[in-house]
């Protein structure tokens, strides 16, 4: 029967929800030691991007990325966890003071928390896709968050809604977030990451051939405008892609 066919949209939706749930479970289990949250988050984002393209198997993709990025993701996680603890601790400390002069410390923490949060949105995604030092990965994550600010704002709003719901409707939202919420957010974020990363990933041979065929069909008197949204040559040269990754990996 067609209803039970794999191509049936209903079953494909159910299967996709089940895969997202499974990735969420893998993320929770591999995050239990806490020190591994960086590696597990990198693996979750990587496998979510693969899942959107139906490339490989979710479990295999997850553990491949977890193993491949473990050391560097762990260092990044420790740095961000320490910086976040200092910033939040500073907010609590300076907020308890009545001296207006000392309130400047509170304002400084807020000012530092903004670039910290923007960078945090991208850092593990950059780690999953590109080969860089820890310093450059953190640097590029902030640059991307500013350069693609419209995308960043959309992710910030999505994260803010999830946080708000978890704080206001504690029982059900907390339960759903634990069961599937983190995986669902990573899956939705992967759409934005692929859109951003496509500007920095070399084109595959097939895509170049397709573009050449399209160019040959243009009339001689026609002119095409350059893509002003693409990265400049300097940035593109600095963003080294992980081995085997081409622009076709980022197609939506």
Describe this structure in words.
The protein has about 250 residues and is mainly alpha-helical. The protein has one domain (about 1-215, about 230-250). The protein is about 75% helix and about 0% strand. It contains ten helices and two strands. It has a two-stranded antiparallel sheet. α2 (about 35-50) crosses α4.
- Work out the strand percent: under 5%
Helix and strand element order: HHHHHEHHHHHE
Helix fraction bin: over 70%
Structural class: mainly alpha
- The average pLDDT score comes to 81
Strand order of the largest sheet: 1-2
Instruction: Report low-confidence residues grouped into runs of 5 or more.
Output: 210-237, 246-252
SS element count, helices: 10
* Termini gap: 30 Å
Largest sheet: 2 strands, antiparallel
Gross geometry: globular
Overall tally of domains: 1
Beta-strand segment tally: 2
What's the Cα radius of gyration? 21 Å
List keywords for this structure.
252 residues, mainly alpha, 2 strands
Topology, element by element:
Layout: H1 9-31, H2 37-52, H3 58-68, H4 70-95, H5 103-129, E1 130-131, H6 134-147, H7 149-168, H8 170-197, H9 205-216, H10 233-238, E2 240-241
Antiparallel strand pairs: 1-2
Helix pairs in contact: 1-2, 1-8, 2-3, 2-4, 2-5, 2-8, 4-5, 5-6, 7-8
